[in-house]
Each structure stands twice: as C-alpha cells, then as structure tokens.
Amino acid sequence: MPSDSGQPSGRHPGADAFAVDSVTRRYGAVLALDRISLGFARGRTTALIGSSGSGKSTLLRLLLGLDWPDAGTVFADGEPLRRGNLPALRRRTGYVIQEGGLFPHLTAFGNLALLPRDLGWSQERTHRRALELAELVRLPDTALERFPAELSGGQRQRVALMRALMPDPDALLLDEPLGSLDPVVRHELQDDLRRIFGELRKTVILVTHDLAEATWFAERLVLMRHGRVVQDGTFADLHERPADAFVTSFVAARRGLPVVGA
Amino acid sequence: MIRQRLAAMVLVLAAVAVGEPAAAACEGPVRIGSKAFTESVLLGEVARLRARAVGCEARHRRELGGTRILWEALRRGEIDAYPEYTGTLTHELLDDIMPDAGVADLRARLAPLGLGISDALGFDNTYAIGMRADTAARLGIRRISDLLAHPQLRYGLSSEFLNRADGWPGLSARYGLADAVVRGMNHALAYRALASDAIDVLDLYSTDAEIAYYGLVTLEDDRGYFPAYQAVFLYRLGLHETAPAFIDALDALAGRIDATAMRRMNAAVKLDGREEADVAAEFLGISGAADADGFRSRLIARSIEHLRLVAISLGLAVLIAIPLGVLAARLRRLGHVVIAATGILQTVPSLAMFVFMIPLFGIGAAPAIAALFLYSLLPIVRNTHAGLVGIAPELRESAAALGLPPMVRLLRIELPLATRSMLAGIKISAVINVGTATLGALIGAGGYGQPILAGIRLDDIGLILEGAVPAAILALLVQGWFEWVERALTPRGLRMPSRAR
Fold first, then answer.
1. Domain boundary at B175, B190, B218, which?
2. What predicted TM-score, i.e. pTM, was given to this entire model?
3. B439: domain CATH number?
4. Subunit contact A104:B399, Cβ cutoff 8 A
5. How do residues A22-68 score in pLDDT, each as one tens digit?
6. Contacts of B501 in chain A (CB under 8 A)
7. Are B24 and B135 contained in the same domain?
8. Would the ipTM clear 0.85, i.e. be above it?
C-alpha cells in the first residue's frame, strides 16, 4: 500500500525548503504525478528514486517553476510558487541536469559568468568566485577558458555544478547529474559530490534511478512509481520494511549493495 | 553586333564631347516613358532628342512595362509623356468612346484627365495576325477567316494581346476561333518560335521589322476587326506651363513618321542591332546626342542600381523578419500565422508581385524594393524561428533555471545559438533577391534586368548576357560574402566539434 509519507494534505509547509501539496501533473493521457504531497527539509539531502517515467524529474521541475501542476500547490520557503517570485527563487537555487546544459557558444567561464553579470558583480568578484569553486570541484583552472565541446564529460558536469553554485544558492536540485558518465568518472564524481554536499550543508534534492547512488548521497530516499510515492524512508526502511512487493523487487534488482542490518 | 554598338557609342561620345545644348527652355527635366518593345523605345528616343533639340533637359525611362503601367505612370505624374496608339486608347484605356474616335475626339476626352495628345505621327501600327508565307501558301490561308478551317494550327500570342479588350478575346469572338489552341508568350520570342516551327500563328504589329525578315504574311482582316492604331504621344497638360517648347517639338513631329520610316527604324534596331538613340538621331537628322554610355560606366550604373535594390530590401527584411521570427518562436499560435502569411507572400508569382506594388509605390525602385522586401521575409522569419525552436530543450530550460530574465536569455543565449540558422536564412534571401531583382527592370527600377529585357526584345544574346552574367557573378559574390560572415559571426564554441583542440 502506497504511503504518502510526507505530511498529510493541507498541512502548513512552513519549515521546509520545498514542499508540494497534492500536486497532479498530466501529459495528455499520462499521469506523471498523482496527488503527491512531500516536504524537503532545509539543509538535508533527499534522493528521489524510481524507474524512468516514475515522475521524479517532473517533480523536480515543478519545484523550480519549470513546469506547473494541473492541481495542487508547490511551496518554496513556505510561499506558494507564483510566476512573480520565480526569478528570486531560481537565483537562490542551483539546478544541474544530466548533460549539464552548458551553453556551447560560451566558454566554461562564460557559462559561469552569465548570472553574476546579470547580478551586477564585478569582473574581479566573478573571477574570484570561479577560482574558488574550481578548487572545490577540483577543476583545473585552465579548463575555464575552454568551450564545452573541448571538455570531458566529467569536466562538463563539474562546470555545470560550479555554474549552479556561483551565486551561493540555498539549495541544489540535481537531475541525474552523473547519468551520462562512464563508471570510473562517475565513481570519482560521486566521491567529490558527497564531499561537496557535506561541506556546503545545502538543501539538496537529487533525482536518480540508481539506488546505490541515492544511498551514497542521501539518508532519505523517496521511491516513486507511476506518479506516486511508494515509500519514503532510509535505505534500511526500504530494505527491511518494504511498503509493497515493488519496493522489494526494486531493492532486489540492485546487486552489490551494502548488506544492511544482517 | 557588340562591335557595332561600341562603334556607335564612340561616335556618340565624340558628339557629346563637342557640345550639348543648354537646358533652359523648360523647368526641370521632361520625363519620357516607353513601353517594353522596340518601337515604343524608339519613339521615346525621338521625343527625348526633340526635347534636347529645343533646349529642354529630358530623361527617357525605357521599357517601363506594358500599356497599363505607362498609362498609370502618366496619370500619376511619374512620367510626363509616352508614345501611345489611338486604338489602345479607344479600346483599352478609355470607356464610353466611339471605337473609331479620331485624335480630336480623344483630345476632348483626355483633357478632363489632365492629359494631352499630340497629332498623329503619321503611321498606323495596327495589330495583325501573321504566319510564315510558306505555311500560309501550303494551306491556302489568306484571310483571318481562313484559319477556321485549320483547327490544328498552334497560336503563340503575346500576353498583352491575349488579354486586351481589343486583342484576342474580341478577335476570337468575331471570327469564331474560340476553340483554337493558344499559348501566351513574349512577343519577341514568338518570332523565334515561329521560325523554329514551334508555333504557326502569331499576333504582330504591322510595323514590325521581322515581317520581311522572317518571310511572313499578314492575314487580311476580312471582318474588319482591328481598329486603327495611329501613333501619338500622350503627355500631361501641365507641360504647357513647365515645358511649352517640348509640346511644340512633339507637335512638329505630326505626320513626320510614316509606316516605311518606322519599319526601317525598327529593322535598324532589331535586325541590325543598332542603338535606339542612334537610329532615332539619324531619323531626326541629328548627329549623335544619344545618352548612351560606355560599357563600363553602364555596367557600374546598373550594378549600383541592382545592389541598391538588393541591399535596401534585404536590410529592411532583416530588421522586420528577425523580430517576427523571435515572436513566432515565442508565441506558438502567432508563429503559425506569421509563417503562413510570409509563406503565402512567397507563392505570389514574382512578376505579379512587382506589378501589385505599382498602385502602392508607383514605378521605379520603390515598388521593386517593396516586392523584394516581401520575398525576403520568409527565409529569414522561418530560419530565425527554426533556429530558436531548434535549441535543445535542456539548454532552454537551463537558461530559465539560472533565473535570467527573458530578454537576457534571448540576447545572450538563444539568439547566439540560433546565429547559424538565421544567417543561412539571410543568405538565402540575399541570393534569391539578386536574381529576382532583375525583374525590377520591368517596372522601371533599372539594374541588371535592363539589358536582359532589351536583349530579349532585340533577340540579342550578347545584350542578355550583359545583364545575366553580372547578375550571376553578383549572386556568387553575395553567397561567398555571407559564408565568410557566417564563419566570422558563428560563436567559436558552436564551430568546435569538428576540430577539437
């Protein structure tokens, strides 16, 4: 039986960085999100997991106003999302997608400088911040002058993360940020990302289809299927107290996971 | 042919160098127009030379188009005078007038319109139906009514004749030829088609030089259909105040040009390849005084005219089409409308488009620029739209997620990403424009179309090439230039995948 584990519908979303209340989103005949209610606590890392088509990416996009629910309300910092407060919300929220979404006509630095320029930063401040972040994500300074086409896949994702972090946002939303990387690079970036999340202590919401990756980053896992939350809890919860047979099979389908509570 | 023309030109230039009559007898230049066939151009030159002889400055805008275009241009005051025929006035241009009205009747009828008419020049250039003499003899055809017995004959009729009230519609009704197989074609080309046996019957003017040259017979108008076509000059009555000497000079031509003289002048131009100005001057007994230029200055003048047409129309199109393309990409429904509308513009046949612009912009460069502008819109609108819509959704979403305002996104991300597509659209428009602009000559815009038109009229390949070759070269240059611009303007990061560092 699916458990809408966030708070019950109609609750006040006050303390959470993000929350959704009974949101529904349809694409034609497909029900991408089916009356979902969830809260994402400030300063915590949450992983949205599920197979493709489960609605996890759609949910992430709703949080930034990149898409709108057909019914229900999205909250950011306790405020219902409106078009008017989107620019401010987006500037304090970093967003990274699978292929990075770097603009190919700008150098890595050009990509980083887009928002600061609009925020009226000085050249010098933008440079300083870029170098600071390059160190954090372990990107060689020389890569900053390169175009995306000249960077490796892993470097591109590092630049994308830097771009998201430029204005020092309160939250980071990541949609399969490592999805297109080969296993070695992916493994390396997983290490770096966990370290970065730990250092920055930001609200992080990560979408992934990989249970191992989700477990690596986040204590709280939200497993989704057909637009609904199947189970919301720790890996131990999913493993030992599966809400239904699907959870069991989803967990079992992953090999080589740490043995928990044996 | 070209050597003859050059020789004539040298003479002309020598004559010009000797001395030009001072322009004082008129206020401002007299603007003379002519239709797009040799006889009209010749008469226009005669008028221009007469004006000069009496001390008026005169400009001759040659081959402006068909009857309607000249008539409208005269009525709107874009030209001051042009040669016309009485039959055209009675049957085509004026309503409620006796079909056999003489010059005096016409003068009374034209005066309220602010127009004057000279006395008849002395020859009657009626329409006639012609065939090759050998074909006619073989089939035993002498009169137009004999054609009825030979339904297999192929007719190649000039487009104007096909559609004029006093042309084919009336003729076929009078003679019962409604079932004949008729094709519309350029008059000058019809002679060649007849010579190469592609058609059997054509319409012609009784003063055409080709009648003798191609061994043609004109069929007897046994039912008296064709009216008289006395050659006259039409002019604006205002000239009586501003250029009375010019009016006197036209009046002095009355009865001076008979059919033989006209046919001889036509033959000198069409068959001997001489300059109209030269032939007209010879007829008037003036030595030289043509306004023809050397090949080089002619080419330069036409290139400037042509480039001006292309550059202004393209510039305006870029200014309008890019915002339209952006709008189309932003607002889906409006986008469909914009693209459909510019697409419909593109389907208007170019010749028709140029003519449609005349009521709005008169004749000359303005209507040509307007027509070219409308043609240029679609490729630029469509490519701007395609370039913007074609941006990968994840890029567009990343731009939005950064929290950049829409205008900043458009200017710093979306338009740069669409640069290639937009430039390709502008290039397509530019190259098409260079070619289409040659049609501008039909409505008095000049450019490379001018020698092409004259060449078609005179059946002179050399003259056609004088317009066609520079037009083709210009198209290639424009294409090359835009490719260079494309390389220079496309952001480096977009050109990258092919050459990794």
1. B218
2. 0.67
3. 1.10.3720.10
4. no
5. 899 999 888 889 999 999 988 889 999 988 888 888 999 999 999 99
6. 146, 150
7. no
8. no
